[in-house]
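Run folding on both entries below.
>entry_1
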Amino acid sequence: MTRQEHLEWCKTRALEYVDSGDFQGAITSMMSDLGKHDETQGHAGIQRSVGLMMIGQLSSAEEVRRFIEGLN
């Protein structure tokens, strides 16, 4: 699987959590799944998501969806 294919797979899985209302689960899924591919391990989005969660910037479906969809 290419890096881009893996990233899209990660996003799809994480957005399923968003759709079910589990925003924390969406971020946790995204962070975990990014670590499962050699080219996305250590992705900057992992650190960024932690920081944004700590300051309350990933607390709504819209915020989490925008963050996930914006990862590349």
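>entry_2
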Amino acid sequence: MRRMPITVVGLAGVALLATGCGGGSSSSAAPSATTSASASATPSPSDSNAPPVRQGDADLVIWSDEKRAAALKDVAAKFGADNGIKVAVQVVATDLQTNFVTANTAGNGPDVVVGAHDWIGNLVQNSAIDPLQLTDPQKSAFVPVALKAVTYKDQVYGLPYALESIALYRNTAVVPAAPKTFEDVVSSGLAAVKAKKVQSALNLQVGQNGDAYHMEPLYTSAGGYLFGTNAQGDYDPKDVGVGKAGSIAAAKKIAALGEKGQGVLKRSIAGENSIALFAGGKAAYLVSGPWALADLQKAGIKYDITPIPGFAGLKPARPFTGVQAFYVASKGKNKQFAQEFVTQAVNTPEAMKALFDAEPRPPAMSAVLDQVSGSNPDVAKFASAAKDGQVLPVIPEMAAIWEPLGKAQAAIVGGADPTKTIESAGKTINAAVK
């Protein structure tokens, strides 16, 4: 997404100004006043490329992206009215995690921030967030994998609201039957290309710098792993799997699918075009998440969603399971209200449903997931993929994985020696985490 200005949404005793965004474009809704006060937007620091800071004189400030802000306005307005305070939602469209840590350290950040669960290790390491004060009954209301994702060193740091994972989209007009193995994906996709029904067998985004997130199902099926686990089941940063035997086997599988092999994986397929090309009917398969649904439904393409199958005779393909969550800032101006807002106001079926309506990712609250799955089979399929996936590691050492592994995989797709390339990536990662 292109850089968007920060928009302030005043929500208690002042006028409302909401900004929504979809697909990289923005549209502003007309202001509607809750009182006779006039609406005025605070000038955006991002207009001068300055890092975002807390805006205005609100008692409680929430930082979010555009879609979450639109869903939160009613929840925030009610919380403000119930407690006699002013609540503001600021939209920070880019680099939200980095900007939050910087602003929080300086003491001019928000009280609450919304973001991915794999931020937790970095945020805790920077003392940027506080643990949440949740009761056992509150914890039990969430899908187990969601609660596990926001738990770090035996403490719950985030209130989960959405699950996300990737799965296999299939153009049913081109490939009617669901594949049972990844070899079936390859053979049916290439057959569709040969018959000139599509241009690409599979859109799995690689790009010039790789994409280890989207490659993970193939990497795990062939025996690769990122970090081992200890006796408690937590990720062990001392056990790096990249460069070991399983990762070499996976690298060889990826090479066979690459540009000098079967040509199924290509560096020309990246985040910018993978969904659009599939939506345009130019690919037999797409590996992506629920964020692709809106574009596919708008395009009117016929599709089905199934789990990503593993290689025949090898391990299951295990994509990452991610969670979107609410966090309480460690240096917020009003931490008591921040805790109450997250653990009480957001932690309701009504608020969780509003967040789902703003962007249909599987809800993390079990009751809401059951509610929406009945009328939305796509959500149910992605929820199933998320439950069977592996929780995306939150340990800070995970930051050392993405770039070297992604670049190694992209090079292998392009024809580089798989063994030497993955072993080199492993050495780079091990040096960074020690």
